[in-house]
């Protein structure tokens, strides 16, 4: 993405050419008459600069800027080019990936199965995002990243309850259920700092989906879940996906309080709850692709390249 801006001696933009809409969020004609300082005050200084330039949406884009004087009347021309170019979106999503994986690891530190669980949840989520939802590769990446922090609120739950090798009592279960609202609160606070300190790396849709997943992945299709008692399509789609993915992984693999279930037992459980707990369309798709439940050739522990 590149653009050229011409400014008068007072630093007012007279003309703009190039892909200003992608780079700055303004159409070319909309920039005419605006002060260049709105984008960055150094865009009137001749020379080569690398600057965080303010976009129309309030975010920032890292750009190389070549500023030259044109003639003897103080007119300037600035050529701008996005440093990341076509990799800008990838850079934002890679940042979200690293941040969310770190948050997820910290939230459940001490769980010996944690890294494998995160890897499997990521694999199942991307698999369903492509096959069941037909999302673009960028949105597959967003949903996969959001799925990593589904249980980030468990950072506020005592470890002796999280890893208790026996069924929880009523009081303990009530405390564990608070992890959904606590996860939402954790992500809101981290999001606030990212938007303030690194807005050029903030991806609004990834954060929206992550907060929806953290808060609503224990809602049930029939409205009997928590924390809000949402039902049917009132539950965010991304939360419905991660709910069935999380349950699939929990059933197929051993946990401190249970043994791994057979595929046949998992199938019966999903069939039985397809219209009570799970989105019936997602459950039907999952059951139709049983052969891929345990197909897993990635032994990287989650350190393999996460997005092609």
Automatic annotation (TrEMBL):
Ranges for domain HD-GYP: 92-302
InterPro entries attached to this UniProt entry: Cyclic_di-GMP/3'3'-cGAMP_PDE, HD/PDEase_dom, HD_GYP_dom
SMART domains reported in the protein's UniProt record: HDc
Residues spanning the membrane: none
PANTHER family assigned: CYCLIC DI-GMP PHOSPHODIESTERASE TM_0186-RELATED, TWO-COMPONENT RESPONSE REGULATOR-RELATED
Protein name, per record: Putative two-component system response regulator
